[in-house]
Hints:
The protein is an all-alpha fold. The protein is built from 10 helices and no strands. The protein has 2 domains: 3-20 and 134-196, Helix-hairpin-Helix base-excision DNA repair enzymes (C-terminal) (Endonuclease Iii, domain 2, Orthogonal Bundle), CATH 1.10.1670.10; 29-128, Orthogonal Bundle (Endonuclease III, domain 1). It is 57% helix and 0% strand. The model has no long low-confidence stretch (mean pLDDT 94).
Amino acid sequence: MNADKRRQLFDRLAQAIPDPSTELNYSTPFELLVAVVLSAQATDKGVNKATAKLFPVANTSQAIFLLGEEGLKEHIKTIGLYNSKAKNIIELSRLLLERHGGEVPNTREELEALPGVGRKTANVILNTAFGQPTIAVDTHIFRVSNRTGIAPGKNVTEVEKKLDRHVPKEHKQDAHHLLILHGRYTCIARKPRCGSCVIADLCEYADKTEN
């Protein structure tokens, strides 16, 4: 896919999704960090259900740390892998208090030093909480990038590097959420909704559906 086609593609997505943002509910960088850690192998809907009960009780690193592992588990046990997630969230809360005055840092290196925070999570926080033009490649972005031909790659790192290189500058900040939302609601995994897709004519997917 050439640069002109990519620009057209992102222009159209931006027009179709005028306010692209995360579907996780949060009001501070710390709440977002907790929600993103909880969202691994879980749905945003499931996470929002749990955090709706958790955040009114504890929504700072201090308050979460004081809940303790068992106390936190009570609030998040509806979410998959809640045991290891509780352990990571308590430990990252401790480290935030110890190293960062309880605040979420805004550098990749410091974020990735926290338990349960890998490159993908760090990218989400940098982009969504701190307005940095990073792209976290999840399953939706990986699928859309390969299917459309925007940034084909064999693994998430390859796709991320290509997106970083090829996404037009003016769309860099929103590309992450544009691609996720497009993948979640239109370019879905089993049977993409090509018939109602705003970029169908630009997309290089060979097996387009007619729905």
